[in-house]
Structures are given as structure tokens and as C-alpha cells.
């Protein structure tokens, strides 16, 4: 009875480097997916803010249109009400009250819109340098893992350079 041996593939340099290549490919896929999801979140947030601004602009335009219509109606009633009719005078007074209310509402909407724009700028401004620092650290992490292919490389890449730590913590680097 003869036993046939199955041939095994030789463990050459190709099979040893394939896990590191796979790790690098997985890391690059994961980082690109994370970047894409961050980018998608940022764009959805911006599109929502733009939709809110457009909605506010439309409300403002509707109020301005109603304001102009009330002004025109007031002028028509002033010219027609010169006869001294009491009903027309009351109607003109009501229109005038509505006009002043709409003016106040328009001024409030303008203030609110400016407040929202300033708040959005303030919230986005400080996060830009931090985001770029984190992206730099992520790229550095991928490069270190690709070069070292060891657990030590993962430990090294998990600690960002001290320069970035100081910038994230808003401290001056100690030398």
C-alpha cells in the first residue's frame, strides 16, 4: 500500500508578505471608508444648514411680500378714506397694526438668521485644524504599520507625535 503525499506550497517570500499586504489593504480600505463616512456626514450637515437657510430666506421673502401688499392696501385705503367713513378708518388702523407686526417679525427673522450664521461659523472654525491633525495621524498610522509589520508598529502608530498632542490640547510644546 503506497501513500501518496500531497504537495504543499513552499513558504517563499510571496506567502510571507501576503499577510502584511492584506493588512495594508484592509487598513487602507477601512481608512478610506472612515474618510468617506466623515465626508458624507459633513456634507449632510452642510446641506441641512443650507436647507434651513433657504427655508428662512423663503419665509423672509413671504413676509416682505405680505409687507408690501399691506403697504399698498394702506395707501389705497388712505386715498379712498378721505370721505371720513368710520369703517374705513378702522380698517386702515388694523392694516397699519398688521404692518408694524410684520415689520417686527421681519426684523426678528433677520437677527435670528445672522445669529445662526455666526454660530455655524464659530462651531466649524476650531474643528478644522483638529480634523486635519487627526487625518495626518491616521495616515501616519497606516504608514508605520505598513513599514514595520509588527505589533511594535501598531503601538508606535497609536501614539501621535507630541507636536500634534500639544496642538490638540492647545498647549505650547515644551522644549
Automatic annotation (TrEMBL):
Coiled-coil ranges (or none): 53-109
Region feature (Disordered): 1-23, 149-175
InterPro entries referenced in this protein's UniProt entry, alphabetically: FDM1-5/IDN2 (IPR045177)
Biased composition (Polar residues): 9-23, 149-168
Keyword Coiled coil: yes
Keywords: Coiled coil
Domain of life the protein comes from: Eukaryota
Any one Gene Ontology BP term: gene silencing by siRNA-directed DNA methylation
Keyword Coiled coil: yes
PANTHER family per the UniProt record, alphabetical: PROTEIN INVOLVED IN DE NOVO 2-RELATED, RIBONUCLEASE P SUBUNIT P38
Protein known as: Uncharacterized protein
Amino acid at each position: 500500500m503506497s501513500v501518496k503525499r500531497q504537495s504543499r506550497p513552499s513558504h517563499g517570500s510571496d506567502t510571507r508578505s501576503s499577510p502584511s499586504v492584506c493588512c495594508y489593504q484592509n487598513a487602507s480600505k477601512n481608512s478610506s471608508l472612515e474618510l468617506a463616512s466623515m465626508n458624507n456626514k459633513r456634507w449632510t450637515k452642510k446641506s441641512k444648514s443650507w436647507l434651513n437657510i433657504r427655508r428662512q430666506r423663503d419665509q423672509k421673502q413671504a413676509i416682505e411680500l405680505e409687507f408690501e401688499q399691506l403697504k399698498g392696501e394702506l395707501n389705497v385705503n388712505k386715498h379712498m378714506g378721505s370721505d371720513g367713513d368710520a369703517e374705513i378708518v378702522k380698517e386702515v388702523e388694523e392694516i397699519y397694526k398688521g404692518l408694524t407686526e410684520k415689520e417686527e417679525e421681519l426684523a426678528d427673522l433677520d437677527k435670528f438668521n445672522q445669529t445662526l450664521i455666526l454660530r455655524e461659523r464659530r462651531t466649524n472654525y476650531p474643528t478644522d485644524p483638529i480634523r486635519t491633525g487627526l487625518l495626518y495621524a491616521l495616515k501616519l498610522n497606516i504608514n508605520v504599520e505598513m513599514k514595520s509589520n509588527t505589533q511594535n508598529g501598531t503601538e508606535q502608530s497609536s501614539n501621535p507625535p507630541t507636536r500634534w498632542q500639544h496642538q490638540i490640547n492647545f498647549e505650547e510644546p515644551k522644549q
